[in-house]
Amino acid sequence: MTASPATTVLEVRDLATHFPVRNGVVKAVDGVSFDVHRGRTLGIVGESGSGKSVTARSILQIVDQPGRIVAGSILLRRPDGSSIDLGSLDPRGRAIRAVRGGEIAMIFQEPMSSLSPVHTVGEQIMEVLRLHRAMSRRAARIRCVEPLDQVEIPEPAHAVDRYTFEFSGGMRQRVMIAMALACDPALLIADEPTTALDVTTQAEVLDLIRRLQREKGMAVMFITHDMGVVAEMADEVLVGYRGKIVEAGPVDGIFHAPSITVALSEDF
């Protein structure tokens, strides 16, 4: 998985995220390294507890307590040639808050855990726009219709005044994608975004993510336990097991010529 610096969005090196427990330490992420490239999808697959989601949350410094990053670097490369180590930032500081939603966005398995039931869809997208783009309320109101239209929400100009509980599960997921992409992030992290959806709706959401990636040229990091989704979505694949990467390479190579024989069959 090599690419020129100009196409590399994220470089993760020797990342370690640990959770202290009563009888020791759980090494949820244990020395993980990978790159994510512009316009390409990196699939991360593994069983529950393999460290997939903790890796994603570490990138944005939103690891649940008492977990914390104890080693490694998370280098975000910006289009102007500058870079910043996200792992060195204060999890509650202004610098990492500017990255979240602005340069790196994340969508989750259950939309209602991320969307507010007491604010309209438009109000929630407007909040993101005003935070990261310093827009007036009026300008943000006009702008928030566009991402809803991009994710194919019917009648987006009216949908901005609806509440999330008025939408179906698939439409809520589209709303969350619209909110994530409102500020045109360089990287979209999708943490099992289709697991709770039926097969038809899952296919529609996957098609939507692929189309938006092509249109915007963004990098995508797709986390799942579903090998079928990985085969459909990913360009490169990481296989996680007990906090480590045990296999990495192009998707075709992982499926047709794996280089290791770790006993993962019972995990997937």
Please give a quick description of this structure.
The protein is α/β, with parallel strands linked by helices and 268 residues long. Helices cover 33% and strands 28% of the residues.
Can you list the strand order of the major beta sheet? 6-7-8-3-9-10
- The proportion of residues in beta strands is 25-35%
- Sketch the topology as an H/E string, one letter per element: EEEHEEHEHHHHHEHEHEEH
**Largest β sheet strand count, sense and barrel closure:** 6 strands, mixed
What does this entry look like structurally?
The protein is α/β, with parallel strands linked by helices and 268 residues long. Helix content is 33%, strand content 28%. Strands 6-7-8-3-9-10 form a 6-stranded mixed beta sheet, with helices on both faces. Strands 2-1-4-5 form a 4-stranded antiparallel beta sheet. Strand 1 (8-21) and strand 2 (24-37) form a beta hairpin. Helix 3 (121-133) crosses helix 4 and helix 7 (169-181) runs parallel beside helix 8 (199-216). The two termini are 24 Å apart. 39% of the residues are buried.
Topology record:
Blueprint: E1 8-21, E2 24-37, E3 41-45, H1 52-59, E4 68-77, E5 83-85, H2 94-99, E6 104-107, H3 121-133, H4 137-143, H5 145-150, H6 156-159, H7 169-181, E7 187-191, H8 199-216, E8 219-224, H9 227-233, E9 236-241, E10 244-250, H10 251-256
Parallel strand pairs: 3-8, 3-9, 6-7, 7-8
Antiparallel strand pairs: 1-2, 1-4, 4-5, 9-10
